[in-house]
Amino acid sequence: MAEMDKEERVWELIRKIGICMLGSRDGEALRSRPMAAYFDRAAHIIYFLTDADSHKKEELGRDPHVVLAFADTSSQTYLSVSGIAEVMDDRDKVRELWSTPAKAWWKSPDDPNIRILKVVPQDAQYWDSPGTIISYVKMAAAAMSSARPAMGENAKVNF
Fold first, then answer.
1. Could you tell me if 109 and 95 are in contact, meaning their C-beta atoms sit under 8 angstroms apart?
2. Among the four 42, 52, 53, 153, which has the fewest Cβ within 10 Å?
3. What DSSP assignment string belongs to 63-96?
4. CATH code given to domain 3-158
5. For every one of its 159 residues, what pLDDT tens digit does the chain have, with 9 covering 90 and above?
6. What pTM did the predictor assign?
7. How far, in Å, CA of 117 to CA of 123, rounded?
8. How many CB atoms lie within 10 A of CB 97?
């Protein structure tokens, strides 16, 4: 697959899966939390809505490196995106990204506690599997032979 096609696959998986575990460093510890991803494909940016009172601003101020782990277990498709993050107070962007899931956390896009978490991807890696049943059959066949199973496409993408 051509590099541009691989990059398009990354953006398609972000769109399709939508929710990821955002991992960051909290001192020596690593922390992950589920987040709903919004993205601007043309700008190569992934956005999240977050609360001003969360610890993300302090964590990212010390180390802006993050990892976004997306998983679609029904199709056995996985995506990991590494990038640089920052927390911003951008009221126009909050209104632009406002959607039904955000209503679970805030009453309106005008809530002064909403912040934008902006991630600029540096690289990504995805694993496209042929599906659960086929994967199990391939693993069982490989276990009975000396061959490694063909488990679908795996690609690394640099941004």
1. yes
2. 42
3. --EEEEEEEETTTTEEEEEEEEEEEE--HHHHHH
4. 2.30.110.10
5. 666 699 999 999 999 999 999 999 998 999 999 999 999 999 999 999 999 988 888 899 999 999 999 999 988 899 999 999 999 999 999 999 999 889 999 999 999 999 999 999 999 999 987 654 444 444 444 455 666 655 577 888 898
6. 0.83
7. 18
8. 19
CA distance 156 to 152: 14
For 28, phi and psi rounded to 5 degrees?
Answer: -85, -15
Give me the residue spans of the domains in the chain. 3-158
Question: How far apart, in whole angstroms, are the C-alpha atoms of residue 138 and residue 25?
Answer: 37
Tokens of 12: 């398609």
- The vertex-103 CA angle with 100 and 42, nearest 5°, equals 50
